[in-house]
Every structure is written in C-alpha cells, then in structure tokens.
C-alpha cells in the first residue's frame, strides 16, 4: 500500500523537534552541529554536538547554525535538517512525506526558499512553511479558528513571538530577538562584571534553569559555579543566588513585557475582552523560567497560564496542522 508518513518540524534556534504522523514526537535534539574547522566536514549533530560546546579543540567548532532567530549558517542548517529528517526514517522507497516546517519568524524569503529546498532534497513530496506563533497556539490547545481573541507568548531560544490570533490568523504580533539565549548572555555579563569571572554558556543556562527567577524575591536558592578568574587567569568557584540572577535578567525580561504590552495596545477591543476571559498562554522553553507567568500577569493585568509541555507546543501544533493541511495552511512556497 502507498502511504506517506507526513512530518511536522519545529526548526528552532535552540532545539529541533520532529513529529511523525501516527507516531507522535520522535525527535528532540539541540540545534547544534560540530564541524571540522578547515574543511567544514560535519562531525556530530544534535546532543552529541552540544556536549562539545565550549570544550572543542581548535580544529573542531560546535556551531548553532540558527543563532538569534535567524539562519546564521545556511549550509550547516541544511545539513542538520537533512540529517534529522533522515534519522526519523519517514522516507522510504515507496513513500515521500509531506513536511510542515515552523522556522524562526524573522527569516527572509530567500532563507525560506532554501529551507524548503533542503527539505525537498531530504525527500519531501511537498513542503509547507508555517508561522511559529500559530503552531504554538494550536499546540497549546487553543481553538484559534473561532472569531475570538487568543494571545500567545512563545519564548524560545533566539526569539520571543507575541501574537493575538483569531479565525485562524494572526491579528497583531511582535517578534523580538530577546529570549533564552539573551538571558544566558545577560547572566554571563553580570557575573563577569560583578565577580570578574568568566563563565561559559552552559553554566549560565544552568544557573537560569536551576536557581533563576524573574520575580523579585520569587525564589531563594544558590548555586556554586566555576569559571576563570579574569585577574589571576585561574579556575575559581563562587556562589551565586537567585536574587542575583533576577537582577541580571531585569533588562531582557522588561523588553519582553514591553513587547507584550504593545501587542495588547494594538489589539482591537473585542479581542482584548476575550483575552481577559481566556488569559494569555505561554509556550517555548522560556515559559519554564521561574516567575515569568506571575510577572507577566502583574504587568499585563490579565490571567497568564503556562501551556502544558511548553517546549512541545510548536511541534504538536505542526502535527495537528498536518491532519488538516488543506484547511489551515494557505501558503505553499
Ligand atoms: N526550566 C527552564 N527555565 C528557563 N529556561 C529554560 C528552561 N528550560 C528551557 N529553557 C530555555 O528555553 C530555550 C529553548 O526553548 P525552545 O526549545 O522553545 O526554543 P526554540 O524553539 O528552539 O527557539 P526559537 O523559538 O527561538 O526558534 C533555551 O534558551 C533554554 O535555556
């Protein structure tokens, strides 16, 4: 029998997730590729490559090809995408899948075209590209096809997308390059400034997740971290508190609050009324940052809820859209 296993892909700046029709989410890997510096030969992809970040010898580089919500390195993005599509085994001699991809919102039309080509070269029969906030909202369980307002704030690695949706489309939205990566950078900067200590990205991400908060006094914890003392050049251990991480995250978090406020201000009043009733839904890994929901609730004065399984919303949404491709996806590039 001829049948094709359609697949949905969340091509995120931090993580790639793949949903195969009938099988659910079958792949969840960091968007990292390790290459040999001289000839750009791919050595490892995904988790294996992530373990190398900050620990590679000079001739090997661990690259995040989709940094900051844009495609920083196209060839590597393409290799990574093909590797992951091949790995889920959705393609066989008798079936070619349809692929629905959610890519970062800020990519150019040239980049969109290239992503489509990469997916086609990986064996897709048809390739559809969809907007991330739409998939996030659907995956979070919102019924965006009714004539009522739904607001979603998706805080990923490279971008935060804020959108109000109604009748299956985005009504007002904003996309800013301020998300998880920038939180990590802010922590690195803070520690460098306050303690003259250099720490790596993985340490700062760990601080953010394990003891971080964006609410003053919201969390009282501490963690020992190691880095390189800028004065002596030697390794040094210090203890960092939740309050310090909250201080470090003040600026990046206030940029997100401002963007959400601006979207609400531009939203037609009838839809705003719906949002007051239903609340704002948070998706993406940033939704897991301690206190984000409470802070947004105070600032926006509307209920704010973290979606179930926030890091899976976009990929789940692509899976659900695959079931209704003809109805929900208008754009076929
Ligand atoms: N428990 C947590 N607390 C705080 N941040 C977290 C937590 N878990 C994950 N994150 C952050 O979430 C981010 C990744 O989220 P996600 O996988 O949704 O991004 P993405 O979809 O790849 O990115 P984008 O939407 O920008 O393309 C990372 O910055 C990670 O540090």
UniProtKB/TrEMBL annotation:
- Alphabetized InterPro entries for the sequence: ATPase_NBD (IPR043129), MreB (IPR004753), MreB_MamK-like (IPR056546)
Q: Name one GO biological process term.
A: regulation of cell shape
Nucleotide-binding as UniProt keyword = yes
Chief subcellular location: cytoplasm
Please provide, alphabetically and separated by semicolons, the GO molecular function terms listed in this UniProt record.
ATP binding
Where does the chain bind ATP? Answer: 13-15, 157-159, 205-208, 285-288
Q: Which residues form the signal peptide?
A: none
Its annotated compartments are: Cytoplasm
State if Nucleotide-binding is listed as a keyword: yes
A single Gene Ontology CC term: cytoplasm
What are the TM regions of this chain, as residue ranges? none
Q: Which UniProt keywords apply?
A: ATP-binding, Cell shape, Cytoplasm, Nucleotide-binding
* Alphabetical list of HAMAP family matching this protein: MreB
* Similarity comment: Belongs to the FtsA/MreB family.
UniProt function note: Forms membrane-associated dynamic filaments that are essential for cell shape determination. Acts by regulating cell wall synthesis and cell elongation, and thus cell shape. A feedback loop between cell geometry and MreB localization may maintain elongated cell shape by targeting cell wall growth to regions of negative cell wall curvature.
Q: How does it assemble?
A: Forms polymers.
**What is this protein called in UniProt?**
Cell shape-determining protein MreB
User: Could you tell me which species this protein originates from?
Assistant: Paenibacillus algicola
> In the UniProt record, what gene is named as encoding this protein?
mreB
């Amino acid at each position: 029998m001829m049948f094709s296993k359609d697949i949905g892909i969340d091509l995120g700046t931090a993580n790639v997730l793949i949903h195969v029709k009938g099988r659910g989410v079958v792949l969840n890997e960091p968007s990292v590729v390790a290459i040999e510096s001289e000839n750009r030969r791919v050595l490892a992809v995904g988790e294996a490559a992530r373990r190398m970040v900050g620990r590679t010898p000079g001739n090997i580089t661990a690259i995040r090809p989709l940094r900051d919500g844009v495609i920083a390195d196209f060839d590597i993005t393409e290799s990574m995408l093909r590797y992951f599509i091949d790995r889920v085994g959705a393609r066989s001699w008798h079936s070619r899948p349809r692929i629905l991809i959610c890519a970062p919102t800020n990519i150019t039309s040239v980049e969109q075209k290239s992503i489509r080509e990469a997916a086609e070269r990986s064996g897709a029969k048809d390739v559809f590209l969809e907007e991330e906030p739409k998939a996030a909202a659907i995956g979070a369980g919102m019924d965006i096809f009714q004539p009522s307002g739904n607001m979603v704030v998706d805080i990923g690695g490279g971008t935060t997308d804020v959108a109000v949706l109604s009748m299956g489309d985005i009504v007002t939205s904003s996309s800013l390059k301020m998300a998880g990566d920038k939180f990590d950078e802010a922590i690195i900067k803070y520690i460098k400034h306050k303690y003259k200590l250099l720490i790596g990205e993985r340490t700062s991400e760990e601080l953010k997740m394990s003891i971080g908060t964006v609410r003053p006094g919201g969390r009282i914890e501490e963690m020992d971290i190691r880095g390189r003392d800028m004065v002596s050049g030697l390794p040094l251990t210090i203890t960092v508190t939740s309050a310090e991480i909250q201080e470090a995250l003040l600026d990046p978090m206030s940029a997100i609050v401002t963007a959400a406020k601006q979207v609400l201000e531009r939203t037609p009043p009838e839809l705003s009324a719906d949002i007051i009733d239903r609340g704002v839904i948070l998706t993406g890994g940033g939704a897991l940052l301690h206190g984000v929901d409470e802070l947004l609730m105070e600032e926006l004065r509307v209920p704010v809820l973290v979606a179930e399984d926030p890091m899976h919303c976009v990929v789940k949404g692509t899976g659900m859209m695959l079931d209704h491709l003809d109805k929900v996806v208008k754009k076929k590039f």
